[in-house]
Amino acid sequence: MEYFLTEEQEMIRDLARRVAEEEILPVRAELDEQEEFPWDIMRILAGSDLCGVYIPEEYEGLGGGCLEFCLAIEELSKVCGGVAVTYAASGLGAYPILLFGTDAQKHKYLPDIAAGRKLAAFALTEANAGSDASHIQAAAVKDGDCYVLSGNKHWITNGGEADTYVVIAMTNKEKGIRGASAFIVEKGWEGFSFGKKERKMGIRCSSTRELVFQNCRVPRENLLGREGLGFVVAMKTLDCTRPGIGAQAVGIAQGALDESLAYSRQRKQFGKPISSFQAIQHMLADMATQTEAARTLVYAAAKNVDAKAKDAAKTSAMAKLFASDTAMRVTVDAVQILAGYGYTREYPVEKMMRDAKVTQIYEGTNQIQRNVIAAQLIKEAAGKGKKR
């Protein structure tokens, strides 16, 4: 479909596509097999000026927004979901600073992220605080001009590799989620270390690690916003970045569809290409329709984020939910079309299926997305009722 992108948006999309096809495609199987962090690719993305597409020009970015970010994520994801999430997760770590940082904080941290000199990460999840963020145990106690941070964070994308971390910790446990605060923490600070690197089903080249804080002193000026704003920082950040997960899912689905279509045209059974059989044609038609519908919703949600629309939280959740469910369906169908070959590592669709699964899980499971959507629908209905 024609989405009437601007010339600059098309340039970003085409550049990301070229990097994906020329630089990522030749090494994606090796990165997946060896679970190797894609530093070489990240340097290429940095050299291509893609790391700052969503960061304002005053902080050395390209001045785009969520839509431009999604366009780049989608193209990278067509080839490798693991590389794409490494790129996207740096944005997840940067967005809280963009949204809530002081001018001094933005000038200190965003230019390095925009230039790709440093990666960022976002640390909310804990062993017993995943979907239920109110049970965060990591704590930050004020001590003079510092906060002393202690606790662990789990399943942190870019953990151990990123230099800049936004960490959510409790500054007043008696207030529940209203007692959470957000801090910018730098790699290398005393008391900040890393646990084991997780071995995952998919997105294997991405680094997922535990963060360990043992009396880590965080300067007071590294508090984001104010005390007690941590939960708001986290939720507003996710409202802005969930379309990026949707874009990752759309890219994976499109990659799987492209592989399926190419295979169906060259694979022959009963003397004909299997693309001539109606059963295969209907599968391809459904895969294409679902992927295009997901793309449309993701782009609309990204535009809502950029426009600061009132319903951005709802549409972001819808985009993440629908696109990730679509990616799972499409990649499963891709494996089915390729049949025995699809189940082997000789073809990339088995990797795409493994990579697709996590898009239904991170940045809020799809069950949580349904909660978010329903809560917003009920709130909107109540508001309309009062006006009558």
Summarize the structure.
The protein has 388 residues and is of the alpha+beta class.
**How many E-type strands?**
10
Cα gyration radius (Å)? 21 Å
Summarize the main sheet: 4 strands, mixed
CATH class call of the largest domain:
Mainly Alpha
What is the helix tally? 11
Determine the oligomeric state from the structure: single chain
Q: Please, what is the CATH homologous superfamily of the largest domain?
A: Butyryl-CoA Dehydrogenase, subunit A, domain 3
The helical percent reads 40-55%
Q: Which structural class do you get from the secondary structure elements? A: alpha+beta
Order of helices and strands: HHHHHHEEEEEEEEHEEHHHH
Physical arrangement of strands within the biggest beta sheet: 1-4-5-8
Number of domains: 3
Overall spatial form: globular
Q: Indicate the CATH architecture of the largest domain.
A: Up-down Bundle
Distance between the termini: 40 Å
Fold-level CATH name of the largest domain? Butyryl-CoA Dehydrogenase, subunit A, domain 3
Bin the strand percentage: 15-25%
**pLDDT below 50 for ≥5 consecutive residues: which ranges?**
none
Please provide a written account of the structure:
The chain is of the alpha+beta class. It has 3 domains: 7-119, Acyl-CoA dehydrogenase/oxidase, N-terminal domain (Butyryl-Coa Dehydrogenase, subunit A, domain 1, Orthogonal Bundle), CATH 1.10.540; 121-229, Butyryl-CoA Dehydrogenase, subunit A, domain 2 (Beta Barrel), CATH 2.40.110.10; 231-387, Butyryl-CoA Dehydrogenase, subunit A, domain 3 (Up-down Bundle). It is 54% helix and 15% strand. The protein has 11 helices and 10 strands. It has helices at residues 7-24, 28-34, 39-47, 66-79, 81-100, 103-114, 230-266, 278-306, 312-342, 349-359, 366-387; strands at 120-123, 139-143, 146-157, 164-170, 180-186, 192-197, 208-219, 223-224, 268-269, 272-273. The strands form 3 sheets. A 4-stranded mixed beta sheet has the order 1-4-5-8. Strands 2-3-7-6 form a 4-stranded antiparallel beta sheet, with helices on one face. It has a two-stranded antiparallel ribbon with strand order 9-10. Helix 5 packs antiparallel against helix 7, helix 7 runs antiparallel to helix 8 and helix 7 (230-266) packs antiparallel against helix 10.
